Amino acid sequence: MYRPLIVAAVAAIVAGPAHAHVSFENAQAAVGTTYKAVLRILHGCDGKATDEVRVRIPEGVIAVKPMPKAGWTIEKTVTGYKAEYDLHGKKVAEGVTELSWSGGSVADDEYDDEFVFRATLDASLPAGETIYFPVIQVCGTDRAEWTQAAAEGQTVHDLERPAPGLELLHGEHAGH
């Protein structure tokens, strides 16, 4: 009687993560805190090696600092924010809005690779919601665009190429 339920539950757990091809290691963080984003690339593009990863940073995610990665070149795009943010008592009106790692190579059949950056999740971000970080994965002349965000009533499993999402939680120290 319980065996079919257990088999179904295990199948759902195993199938869930396999659907997401680009995801965050930790997909939850509190607003008003610093977040270490570990972006996982699970495979290449149709058998080709990944040689560039670009991630667009959503509004309200500020003070972005990428972690160096051996063999890769980091490029930061800095533009003006739509709003001014308070960062440790200082007003900031611009910052990194896109990161790019290029020049390296991860074969399609190699272990998942990780691209890491740190950022502050401004206290004004809406706790209880999910924000999305669109990612472009380049594999030679091919590319995979992980840019779709779930609309109301959808889940990421309804999407062909979902962008990695970060669920925003209420923070004990939001605003510090």
Overall pLDDT level:
87
What is the helix content?
Answer: under 10%
> How much β-strand is present in the residues?
over 45%
Count of DSSP H/I helices: 1
Euclidean distance between termini CA atoms: 52 Å
Which CATH-level-2 architecture? Sandwich
What is the CATH fold-level name?
Immunoglobulin-like
**Oligomeric state as shown:** single chain
Class of secondary structure makeup: mainly beta
Q: Kindly give the count of domains.
A: 1
Order of H and E elements: HEEEEEEEEEEEE
CATH class: Mainly Beta
Low-confidence stretches: 1-20
Cα radius of gyration in angstroms: 18 Å
What is the compact description of this entry?
By secondary structure, this protein is mainly beta. The chain contains one helix and twelve strands; from the N terminus they run αββββββββββββ.
Short key terms for the protein model shown above:
176 residues, mainly beta, Immunoglobulin-like, 4-stranded antiparallel beta sheet, 49% strand, disordered N terminus
